[in-house]
Amino acid sequence: MNGAQHILKAFQNHHIDTVFGYPGGCIMPLYDALVDAEGVEHVLCRHEQGCALAADGYARASGRLGVCIATSGPGATNLITGVANAHRDSIPMLVVTGQVPSSLIGTDAFQETDVLGMALGIVKHSYLITDANELPSVMEEAMTLAQSGRPGPVWVDIPKDLLLAEVTRPAPAPNQAVAPEAMAISAALELLYDAQRPLLYSGGGVSLAGAESAFRRLAEASGLPGVVTLKGIGNHHKADPNHLGMLGMHGSRAANEAVEACDLLFVIGARLDDRATGNLAGFAPGARVIHLDADHAEFGKLRAADVALGGDLATLLDGFTEALQARPLATQAWTEQCRRQRTLKGLQTADNEEALAPISGPGFIRQLSRITPDDAIIACDVGQHQMWVAQHYQFDHPRHHLSSGGLGTMGFGMPAAIGAQFACPGQTVINVSGDGSFMMNAQELATIRRYNLPVKLIIMDNQCLGMVRQQQELFYGNRESQIDLNDNPDFVTMARAFDIPAMRIERSDQIRRGIETILALDGPMLLHVAIAREENVWPIVKPGASNRDMLDASQQRQHPTTSKEITA
Amino acid sequence: MSQPAPREYQIECRMTFEPAALERVCQVVRIRGFEVTEVNASLQDTGWRIALTVRGSRSLDMLRKQLEKLHNVERVVADTTQRITQRSA
Ligand SMILES: Cc1ncc(C[n+]2csc(CCOP(=O)(O)OP(=O)(O)O)c2C)c(N)n1
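The joint structure predicted for all components is written out below.
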C-alpha cells in the first residue's frame, strides 16, 4: 500500500465518508488512489476556498470531522482562508495537501510554497511528512487531535514522492477519547448561591463539546436568565422565556443591559470576544466571573475569572445541574426583571404589513423563520444580513446556525451550506447571503448543480457592501468609499446560467410566496430579494465603545463622528 | 489603554522534535505580545530544550498557557521572578 492509499484507508478507519477537494500536480497520487477507493465520496468544489469552507460547514452542521484536500502551491494558498475560518471558530478539520517531492523542497520548485510555515498561525497543529512510514501514526494523531479538547484544523502536508512510497508500518489502533478532568465545582457553586443577579453567558463551546442538552438542563434547573454570543445562538430552547438573546455589537438591549447589571457572569464555552464584550472596561463592571471552557488558555485572557473550570463541559454542567436541583437558587426576582426587559427591549419589532412596502431585512428574516421547518439549517455570509439572521431568526439548536464568527469570512455561506447539505441530506439547508458576499464564492453554484443539492440560496441585495456602508454613515461622517455595487450582475440570470431556477422579489407581499416557492421545489433554487440600500442594523455599538452605549435608529443622526479604530 | 511597563522573563520550554518546533514557539511569543531578547536552544535525544528570555507588558501566565497548547510542547517553566527592563516599550 502506498502513502496515498494509506490516507484513504485512514479515512475509512475513521468512518470519514465525505471529503471536499480539488486535484493538481503534487496531490495526483491521492486522486489516482481515489479511483479505486470505496466508501469515500469526494466532492469536487470549484475553488479550494470552497473546499475548505464546505468541509467547515459539514463539520459545523454534523459535529463530525470536516476533510479538505488540495494540491501544493496555489491549491494550498487557496485553502488558507477556509482553514483560518475553521481555526477561529474551533471547527474540527483535517487538511491534506500534496507538496513538491522531498528532494525539491527548498529549491523554489514549481508550485512549491512553505505550507508548514505559512499555516503556523491558523492551525491547531500541522505536519510535514518526511518518511512514508510516519503516515500511519500522523494520520491517526491528526484526526484525533482535530476533534479533541478544543477542536481545530490540523494540516498534513505530504511530498508527492511519499504519497507514492510504500508504507510498511501498520496503522495504530484508533485513539480512545481522553477522560474529562474531574474538577471541583464547589467554589463556583458558592459564588452562585452568593449572587443576587447571576447571568448565563454561553457561546459556541457548548455545541463544540456536544453539551447542548446538558446546557439546557442547567438553564432549566437554575432558572437563570441567559445571553448568548453569535456562536451560542440556539443554545437556549427557542421558547425559553429566560433567553435574552445575543449580546454585543448588534445584540439586544435586554442582553447587553443584563450583562451590565449582573453581579455574577457564568461564562460557558465562550471566549469573551471583543465583538461580544465591547470595551472591556465597561463590560459587566460589577460582576464576578465563573468561566467554564475546554481551553485553559481562555481563562483570564481578557477578563479575570474568580473561578475557572476546564474539562468536559457536559460533565461540568451536569455537576452544576445536580447541585442546583438539590438546592435551587433564590433569584426569581432578578429573572423576572430580565424577562420584563426582554419584552420591552428584545429584538421583536412589528413587521411592516403594508403589501406594497419595500422588503425590510429584519422583516424578511422573521418571515423566513416562521415558514421554514424547525430543523432547517441556515448558513449565512458576513454583513448586515448575517446580523439580521442572528437577531431575528429563531434557532432551536446551535448546529442549525452556521455563521463565520471569529474570522467573519465573506463567501462562507454557500460553501458552508453545501457542506451542511452533504452532512444532513434530509434537512432543509438555506444560505442567506448579501450581494457582496455571494460573489466571493459564486463559482460554487456549479457544485450545487453538479451534485443536485437542494440548497436554497437567498441573496439580500442592497446593491452595496451594506455593513461597511452603515459604518461609513455612522462613524465616518457618511463619506461613502468603495461600497457601491449597483452594477451587480442579474442574479436570476446568473443562477439560470448554472441551470439553477431563480426568482426575484421586491415587495413585502411577495415574501411569503417567494420563500414558499424555493422551499417547495425539489432541488436548488435562488431567491433574489431586493432590499433598500439605506437600511441599517440596529442596535449597534460603535467599535471600541462600551456595550452600554448602544445606538438605535432614533439616534442615527446624532453620531456622525469619525473613528480610526473600525474593522467592519 | 495604558499598558504596564514591559518586563523581562525567563521561559524554559521542552518540546518533542518536529521540523517547525522553533518557529512555532517564536510565533506564539510574537503574536501574544512579547519579543524574544535571548534564545538558547539545543536538540537533544529527548527533544528540544529551549531557553528564552522574553520581554513584554502582557501576562506571562497567558503566554505560558498559549505555549502549552502547542502540540509538541511537553513542559513550560516560566520564571516568575520578573525584572523590569531598562528600555521602555
Ligand atoms: C473576505 C472579506 N473581505 C472583507 C470583509 C469586510 N466586510 C465585512 S461586511 C462587508 C460587506 C458585506 O456586504 P454584503 O455581503 O453585500 O452584505 P450586507 O452587509 O450588504 O448585508 C465587508 C466588505 C470581510 N468580512 N470578509
